[in-house]
Every structure is written in structure tokens, then in C-alpha cells.
Write a structure and sequence with these properties.
single chain, alpha+beta, Cytochrome p450, six-stranded mixed beta sheet, three-stranded antiparallel beta sheet, 47% helix, globular
Length: 404
């Protein structure tokens, strides 16, 4: 960024198209924006106008945790956005600020604490072992995504949510439509409406429940008058969708391990570093496309010499923050010894992903099980022939062809 821009002239508005990137390629537009300066202006393919983009680690964390930047205020402002859908809905937990946001998160907190997540560990491990048993029984070649990486997170999040096994296929179909922009706005919104109606019925039937799954906790909170039925349903939809994002993240994680067998071999040889290794892989993989949800500046704020005025939309890039060289030495290198590793792959502040501990658990179980039980696991096609999802908000392979 030029000295003139820092002195007061705003940076130019850069068009950020919806790129269908494959492999672990870092977004070239984001790379250029990071080079140009820490504070930029962007225009995304949908919505209206332009928005600020912050890419440095300290700025990203500050905005994500600062009451001067509001998610709820997005309701009253037209904002440029990546997808044609995901239009802000008033009352949705993703667009709430504290204290309402805190109140809703508190209703489901017991399910996502370390104790709550541990409650599903044994069941998750057993479900994963069954999937790998079937994979081995059917023999190579196989699609690792279809056989394991997709059904496993679906089963785990449905277990935590309290969704019956018979309904998991419908949940998966709805989630895939919601998490993609390639099917069009109408199909995505139809899927969201159907999932919403499903959770409204399920939560309504569990208002007196004392069980520890998420829909039972929400039903009990509605029964006590702590949250409204609409708030409970909105939170359930958000958690269900977020839980299945592990499919795409783990797909990228294993794609990386399969094209870098040296990394996989080290994790096989040194199981004691696997937890730290998973954290480093989560820092490194470009797990989403472009940016997520915006915020609105509630007052004038100066960041690195640039004035962001009240009412202007602001995006933060967690992907860029995870490559900030002031925080991560040699950020383009995968370093399993990196410590500390304060990555923000799960966000930061009040909207920090509530399922972060669950996602880590699933990733660690997948690494343990697949690396140990399939020591010769490798791609069955060249890396550039692995198909990646098109129009996906969360990046990941559509299929991961493997053999062993």
C-alpha cells in the first residue's frame, strides 16, 4: 500500500471473483492482496458495494473480538458477499452480537466442552473403525471421501446433535446444497428451509428432555424460556452445517498427506507428534474460499493508518492471518514442531467455532486410524486428477481416489 493511501486516500477496490481452486493452492487474489498491504478494499461476486479486508494476524483477531465491529448490524446494510445465498437472516446466531449471542451459545455449551466431546469419542472411534473395516473388505481402489471422510463427520455430528441415524442422508444432502453456490440460490434456500423445518419439529419434541445431545439441550432451553424456538432452530442449523465442514477440511488434509508422503510417514513413525501435526495442517490448508461473514464498523476506527468509517463493512481473512510471517516463522513451510501455534483456523472471539474441539477430535481419529491401518495408502491417480468441489464455500476434494 502506498504512503498516499496510508495518509488518507483509500486503496482501490479490488474485484475478488469466486475461484474454483484445486489442491492446496492458496488463493492468488488473496496472495496479491496480502502483498499490497494489510488493509484493502474488495468487491465480491454477489451483494452490493465494497468492503474492507484485513489480512494481518493482530488486526484479524482485534476485529473479530471488538464490539466496535458488529455482525448484527449487517442486517441493516447491503454488503458485498461471496455466495448468492447466505443472505443475513435477523436473529440467526451467526449474525448476533453479545449478549444475545452469548445467551444462545450458553444453551448448547455442555455438548461442546471437552467433557461433552469426550462423551462421543468412543462411539466416534467405533463408527470410524466400521467404515475402515468396510473399506478394507471392499479392497482397492476406493474413493476415500465417499467411503470414510464424508460419512464419518456426518455420523459424528448427527450423534452429537441427536439426529437419528435414519435421517443422516437427508442431513447430508441438505448440507451439501447449502454449502455450495453452484446449484443456485433457490435450491440452496430450499434446502435450508427444509433443514429448518426438520429441526423445528425435532427440538419441539424434546422440550422436556434431559439428554445431553444438542437438540435436547436446545429443547430444554426453549422449555425454560431461555431461548426462543426460532433461535434454537437457527443455532441447530448452523451447528449441523458446521459439523459437516470437517468432510472438506479432512479431505484437504489427507490430500496434502497423500501428495507429501514424507509428512505422512513422519506421523506414522512418531505418533506422539500427531496432535501437534494436525494443528499445523489445520493452520496450513486453505480450508475455505475467499472470506466468510462480514461485520459493520459501529464507529470510526483507524487501523494501520487507514480510517474505517462507521457503517462500512469489514471482512477478516483467517487464511491470511495463518500465513502472517510476523506470527508464524516460514509460514509457507509445514512444521510439525511449530510451537506455539496460535492459528485461527477456527476463528476468534465470540464467534469462535463452537465445534472446534469436536473437529480436532475427528481429525486426530482420522489420522490415527487411516495412517495406522493403511500403511501403504496412496493416491491412485496423479494429484492434478483429483476432482475438487466447484462452487464450494468450504474447499475440499469431491473424491479422493486411493489405493493401498
Amino acid at each position: 500500500m502506498t504512503e498516499e493511501a496510508l495518509a488518507g486516500a483509500p486503496p482501490p477496490v479490488r474485484l475478488w471473483p469466486a475461484l474454483d481452486l484445486t489442491g492446496i493452492d492458496f488463493d492468488p487474489v488473496l496472495t496479491e492482496l496480502m502483498r499490497e498491504g494489510p488493509v484493502n478494499r474488495i468487491q465480491l461476486p454477489n451483494g452490493e458495494g465494497w468492503a474492507w479486508l484485513l489480512t494481518r494476524y493482530d488486526d484479524v483477531r482485534m476485529v473479530a473480538n471488538d464490539a466496535r465491529f458488529s455482525r448484527e448490524a449487517v442486517m441493516d446494510h447491503p454488503v458485498t458477499r461471496l455466495a448468492p445465498h447466505f443472505i443475513p437472516t435477523r436473529g440467526a446466531v451467526g449474525f448476533l452480537d453479545p449478549p444475545d449471542h452469548t445467551r444462545l451459545r450458553r444453551a448448547v455449551a455442555p455438548a461442546f466442552t471437552a467433557k461433552g466431546v469426550e462423551r462421543v469419542r468412543d462411539k466416534a472411534r467405533a463408527m470410524l473403525d466400521e467404515l475402515v473395516d468396510e473399506l478394507l473388505q471392499d479392497g482397492p481402489p476406493a474413493d476415500l471421501t465417499g467411503a470414510v471422510l464424508s460419512p464419518f463427520p456426518i455420523a459424528v455430528i448427527c450423534e452429537l446433535m441427536g439426529v437419528p441415524a435414519d435421517d443422516r442422508h437427508a442431513m447430508h444432502s441438505w448440507t451439501q446444497l447449502i454449502l455450495s453456490s453452484s446449484h443456485g440460490k433457490e435450491l440452496s434456500e430450499k434446502a435450508r428451509n427444509e433443514m429448518t423445518a426438520y429441526f423445528a419439529d425435532l427440538i419441539g419434541r424434546r422440550e422436556g428432555s434431559t439428554a445431553e445431545d444438542v437438540t435436547s439441550l436446545l429443547g430444554a432451553a426453549v422449555g425454560r424460556g431461555e431461548v426462543t424456538p426460532q433461535e434454537a432452530v437457527g443455532l441447530a442449523v448452523l451447528l449441523q452445517i458446521g459439523g459437516e465442514a470437517v468432510t472438506n477440511n479432512s479431505g484437504q488434509l489427507f490430500y496434502l498427506l497423500l501428495i507429501r508422503p514424507d509428512l505422512a510417514q513422519r506421523l506414522r513413525a512418531e505418533p506422539e507428534i500427531r496432535s501437534r501435526g494436525v494443528d499445523e495442517l489445520l493452520r496450513y490448508i486453505p480450508h475455505r474460499s475467499a472470506v466468510g461473514l462480514s461485520r459493520i464498523a459501529m464507529e470510526d476506527v483507524e487501523i494501520r493508518g487507514v480510517r474505517i468509517r462507521a457503517g462500512e463493512p469489514v471482512y477478516v481473512s483467517y487464511l491470511a492471518a495463518n500465513r502472517d510471517p510476523d506470527v508464524f516463522v516460514d509460514p509457507e513451510m509445514i512444521d510439525f514442531a511449530r510451537s506455539p501455534n496460535p492459528h485461527v483456523a477456527f476463528g476468534f472471539g465470540p464467534h469462535y467455532c463452537p465445534g472446534a474441539q469436536l473437529a480436532r477430535l475427528e481429525s486426530e481419529l482420522l489420522v490415527d486410524t487411516l495412517l495406522d491401518r493403511l500403511p501403504d495408502l496412496r493416491l491412485s491417480v496423479p494429484p492434478d486428477q483429483v476432482p475438487f468441489r466447484k462452487g464450494a464455500l468450504i474447499r475440499g476434494p469431491e473424491a479422493l481416489p486411493v489405493t493401498w
